[in-house]
Amino acid sequence: MNIIETKIKDLLIFEPRVFADERGWFMESFNQKNFEQALAERNFEIPNFVQDNHSMSQKGVLRGLHYQLNPHAQGKLVRVVQGRAWDVAVDIRQDSATFGQWVGVELTGENHRQFWIPAGFAHGFIALEDNTQFLYKTTDYYAKESERAIIWNDPTLAIDWPLNQVDKVLVSDKDQVADTFNQ
């Protein structure tokens, strides 16, 4: 497994080894021991995953930027198993040196990348192909009372969404009226 560090030290991209031949391919999509070792080597907290989620989105669907407040803050290990998405994590930890900064990464069914987003980050993505299937493991259960969102096109964050790759952006009513980053 190849581990790619990002400009925000707590965010990691995992590239699994894929074994392919004329029959198809095989990969280990998750290995708890290897995941823990990668985090421990960087002195990161080791999470406990409690829930897996799976969504499907059409091209142009933008979900986010979502997060949960303590005591139900969630870390997420995310990946795309079919299609293509631009995935974004925003540092919302007020005591962090990278507060308000974001990292974006393209996740596809072909590149098999996984993006580790610990608690303390808002998360969102835009589907760049129809039928984009997104899987993620979370470190806490969904808790409606703790759920919050930041508007996806917040001018303070200035996220460079690849809008030129979609015909139309589709955002839920709830996400369309989310708070700004400064709120």
From TrEMBL:
<dbReference type="InterPro" id="IPR014710">
    <property type="entry name" value="RmlC-like_jellyroll"/>
</dbReference>
<protein>
    <recommendedName>
        <fullName>dTDP-4-dehydrorhamnose 3,5-epimerase</fullName>
        <ecNumber>5.1.3.13</ecNumber>
    </recommendedName>
</protein>
<feature type="active site" description="Proton acceptor">
    <location>
        <position position="66"/>
    </location>
</feature>
<comment type="subunit">
    <text>Homodimer.</text>
</comment>
<comment type="function">
    <text>Catalyzes the epimerization of the C3' and C5'positions of dTDP-6-deoxy-D-xylo-4-hexulose, forming dTDP-6-deoxy-L-lyxo-4-hexulose.</text>
</comment>
<comment type="pathway">
    <text>Carbohydrate biosynthesis; dTDP-L-rhamnose biosynthesis.</text>
</comment>
<dbReference type="GO" id="GO:0000271">
    <property type="term" value="P:polysaccharide biosynthetic process"/>
</dbReference>
<dbReference type="InterPro" id="IPR011051">
    <property type="entry name" value="RmlC_Cupin_sf"/>
</dbReference>
<keyword id="KW-0413">Isomerase</keyword>
<feature type="site" description="Participates in a stacking interaction with the thymidine ring of dTDP-4-oxo-6-deoxyglucose">
    <location>
        <position position="142"/>
    </location>
</feature>
<dbReference type="GO" id="GO:0019305">
    <property type="term" value="P:dTDP-rhamnose biosynthetic process"/>
</dbReference>
<dbReference type="InterPro" id="IPR000888">
    <property type="entry name" value="RmlC-like"/>
</dbReference>
<dbReference type="Pfam" id="PF00908">
    <property type="entry name" value="dTDP_sugar_isom"/>
</dbReference>
<comment type="similarity">
    <text>Belongs to the dTDP-4-dehydrorhamnose 3,5-epimerase family.</text>
</comment>
<dbReference type="GO" id="GO:0005829">
    <property type="term" value="C:cytosol"/>
</dbReference>
<feature type="active site" description="Proton donor">
    <location>
        <position position="136"/>
    </location>
</feature>
<dbReference type="GO" id="GO:0008830">
    <property type="term" value="F:dTDP-4-dehydrorhamnose 3,5-epimerase activity"/>
</dbReference>
